[in-house]
């Protein structure tokens, strides 16, 4: 059985797909300029997989579908490097670089010679061997003479070409370079690990090394790794250029990624200038670097200089300050985010990390502190890279004798409300949503939203100022707005005081004789006053109870009819309501269990906020008894509008898909709700079908309503 026996069309199609995928990979990984959307790329891959499955005789190890193949290994075989992998001498000061240049001048004369200038990538050095254009073996550096054969893992790194991009490949070409884990991929990996409660990677270098040492290439394939070429090993049957910078250009042409930062420069000033330039951009680069590398460019000059022990005399690594340092934890505090999320933070004895004094480092969440077992008094490794918040990487053991394991505080440091830990969630939260200063802005913003209390004119900037400027004169104190209940105590004088503070901040002095423009203030007060008469459903949504969105708020209003009944309901009672699961039930119980929240609700009541109770029940109509879920983006109307029209027909619009759902309306880019609907085999309507449904029933309703002439106003 040969490839030729397959139908021509299939063979041609497979080849066309392969070369097109290889081309896209090259644009994506080497040129860093993607040519097609990811979804389209995935489609090409799927087509190729399907064709190869139908025509196994067309399979080839070079196919882009074969990057993850084979079985997990029991260990790695040794791999002797035909040409040893050398290391570099390090320099940490300008003097050492000057010495390096002087030594070179002494050997080849003082004429200004060119250097290849490169970032020193902080990953794992590897060597890739290509025979007749095919990637046959890849190995780690090991001790320089013998490394580990990690071919199967390297095949999963998509920026490593499986075939050289040339019609006339050399007999042998060994390309050396660095496998790195780009910073963004590293951060995303750790974020996911943290959410799952898994071990995180200490830094991108460990991430790269650990990923390449996985025995199962399928695991390596899930890790975000990249490769950059910077040197040659053995070469047979290839015309090596006369200088290194030209080699890098040729390697790029053959399909290898080469760092975009490589350059050429002359003399000491050229080197130091590059060091400065890259140093200034270090934090913005997509991968970690720990310095720059200077290599005498011309190979004949390199040969003249030769080697000392295992490092070339013609190259030097000029190192940046380290991104990791050791210091002592003086305290562990918690910070409260805008949404109440609690983040433990290590207070540190000040330490200089990569040029910046670090005094705080994030510990991410409670689980992370426990996994790393960070204690007050510990010596810890702190890492700062890019614009990422400094973090505690690990503890230098042993702990001091008197250090005790850390535990999450019970109460919010901002407002004293209870801190609650959500089952199966990594983050703990402050439960004082309506009361907590850290959550003030978010709480008020949400409360005032159109679909909540609908207070027009209360925008984000105004809220920002209201919670930060001391404009309220209340008795002997002058303070900022504290809770949503405070909104209902505002009067014209308060708002004018606010305006004066805003003006003063902008450098304007308000002339006390000139009449102050008060229209906006009057309008805002009117909007606040108007919001006092609302419905239970709106109020419930406005309170910002976690997991209680608009649809759930409506369900709760309809089922419980009164805020007091809801506030006292047991979890089991709550769970009987349609689409209230254990999580929602727990959030509701937590919310009303926090006395600070109840206090604010009481203040709202006293301020005259009234909610029509028992108003949430669906109107009777052709869709009465039907529970509908809307998901994705609709084009001819908003999801809100669609929901209102469905409700006007008697349907109950719910926020989550369950067995109790009658049908799902899915617009563009619908996600997990649509998946769930499909899994439950529920009818799914697209936008066209929804419009048809609305049209049909609207006609029925029109006919029924025509007596009293009442149809939907909008
Ligand atoms: S050249 C003969 N170029 O640094 C020179 N190395 O200390 C061989 N490295 O093991 C290496 N970036 O892991 C070279 N642009 C670069 C490099 C680089 C990072 C690493 C590599 C090597 C170590 C040497």
Structure at a glance:
The chain is α+β, with helices and mostly antiparallel strands and 714 residues long.
Describe this structure in words.
With 714 residues, the chain is an alpha+beta fold. Among the domains are: 3-68, Helix hairpin bin (Helix Hairpins, Orthogonal Bundle), CATH 1.10.287.610; 88-319, DNA ligase/mRNA capping enzyme (D-amino Acid Aminotransferase, Chain A, domain 1, 2-Layer Sandwich), CATH 3.30.470.30; 324-408, OB fold (Dihydrolipoamide Acetyltransferase, E2P) (Beta Barrel), CATH 2.40.50; 627-713, 3-Layer(aba) Sandwich (Rossmann fold), CATH 3.40.50. Helices cover 37% and strands 21% of the residues. The chain is built from 24 helices and 28 strands. Strand 17 and strand 18 (391-396) form a beta hairpin. Helix 1 packs antiparallel against helix 2 (38-54) and helix 3 packs antiparallel against helix 9. The longest helix has 23 residues, at 8-30. The protein binds 2-(butylsulfanyl)adenosine.
Which residues sit in consecutive blocks of at least 5 with pLDDT less than 50?
Answer: 704-714
Gap from first CA to last CA? 70 Å
CATH topology heading of one domain: D-amino Acid Aminotransferase, Chain A, domain 1
> Largest beta sheet, briefly?
7 strands, antiparallel
CATH homologous superfamily annotation of one domain = DNA ligase/mRNA capping enzyme
* Total E-strand runs: 28
The CATH class label of one domain is Alpha Beta
Give the CA-based shape. globular
In DSSP terms (H or I, runs of 4 or more residues), the helix count works out at 24
Would you identify the CATH architecture of one domain?
2-Layer Sandwich
**Share of helical residues:** 25-40%
- Share of β-strand residues: 15-25%
Radius of gyration: 33 Å
Ligands bound, unique: 2-(butylsulfanyl)adenosine
Structural class: alpha+beta
The overall pLDDT, averaged over residues, is: 89
